[in-house]
Amino acid sequence: MTHSIAGLYVITDARQPRPVPLETAVAATLRGGARVIQYRDKSDDAARRQREAAGVAAQCREVDACFIVNDDVELARAVDADGVHMGRDDGDVAAVRAALGPDRWVGVSCYGDLDRARAAIDAGADYLAFGSMYPSPTKPEAAVVPLSIFAAARALTDRPLVAIGGINADNIAEVTAAGADAVAVVNAVSGAADIEAATADLIARGFGEQS
Ligand SMILES: Cc1ncc(COP(=O)(O)OP(=O)(O)O)c(N)n1
Ligand SMILES: Cc1ncsc1CCOP(=O)(O)O
Ligand SMILES: [Mg+2]
Q1: Does the beta carbon of 116 lie inside 6 Å of ligand 1?
Q2: What mean pLDDT, rounded, does the chain reach?
Q3: Where are the domains of the chain?
Q4: Closest Cα partner for 108 from 96, 43, 100?
Q5: In this model, does residue 210 exceed pLDDT 80?
Q6: Does residue 49 carry a catalytic annotation?
Q7: Is the CB of 181 under 6 A from ligand 1?
Q8: Are 112 and 143 in contact (CB under 8 A)?
Q9: What is the pLDDT of residue 209?
Q10: What would the DSSP string read from start to end of 11-62?
Q11: pLDDT of 141-189, one tens digit each?
């Protein structure tokens, strides 16, 4: 497995029409220092998804950033992504692990559920995501999970732990202090007037200066 799941983990904005062209937004967040990018698009426009994911994959490859595809293992394989992220509605983790082989990341959403985390580990997950940590502007229906989930999850595994949901410049430091290895954001980056500066600011506040 190449790359690491650590630091700021930027998820692309699924809104259509896009407020900022996807390529422009990804280029800015990479310039700001993000080195984990997830392509997240909830539409059924397969041609656009394929085209966009291939474009983001190429942008990530240029700077050796890790590229993850949300939900869709076939798309991840088609664009030679570094991994896939799976939630509760996205299929069987063990089957995805087998389909992707040992060299690509399989990330699994555990929400606030440690039983789900145990099952994900047993099924071969490489990293575990927890959240929503705060009310999320992107997913307002998501239940909020206490910060103590990271200490509890750390007792289960050494795998990277990712925090997601409502994380911004004001609260990212308390999430990393609670034990998250990586912090996934949508709105704190894609909703910013200056995506490059917002990315650099989140990294500095959450992780200190990254090289
Ligand atoms: C890093 C990361 N963590 C959690 C999620 C959420 O996955 P899921 O619950 O499947 O919800 P959708 O993103 O598919 O709406 C994620 N995408 N990435
Ligand atoms: C996909 C997802 N899953 C839980 S919250 C969330 C959205 C995160 O977006 P934001 O960083 O804008 O709250
Ligand atoms: Mg999903």
Answers
A1: no
A2: 97
A3: 7-207
A4: 96
A5: no
A6: no
A7: no
A8: yes
A9: 52
A10: E----SS-SS-HHHHHHHHHHTT--EEEE---S--HHHHHHHHHHHHHHHHH
A11: 999 999 999 999 999 999 999 999 999 999 999 999 999 999 999 999 9
